[in-house]
Design a protein that fits this description.
Radius of gyration: 17 Å
Oligomer: single chain
Helix content: 55-70%
Length: 82
């Protein structure tokens, strides 16, 4: 699970490499001034802005596209079993 840590590498480089191998970047654009409201709502929910956005996306997927959401859940289950 994860990459073996090299003793001669910079911790920041390690984190960047790990993130590049395990995550994909999304770049949502929001109207100016909205980010502050999204951040406040996330904080009120006890989540980071990233966690809040992902939860909102997945709730909408589950509601509006249950077949795709189920496929995503199955893939996640397979990935965690490995």
């Amino acid at each position: 699970m994860g990459r073996p840590k090299k003793t001669d590498s910079n911790p920041t480089d390690y984190k960047r490499g790990f993130n590049a191998e395990n995550y994909e970047r999304l770049y949502p654009w929001a109207r100016r001034g909205r980010k502050a409201f999204y951040t406040m709502a996330a904080k009120q929910a006890g989540a980071s802005l990233n966690e809040f956005i992902i939860a909102a996306i997945e709730e909408k997927m589950e509601r509006d596209s249950p077949e795709i959401y189920a496929q995503m859940q199955e893939q996640e289950k397979r990935d965690t079993e490995q």
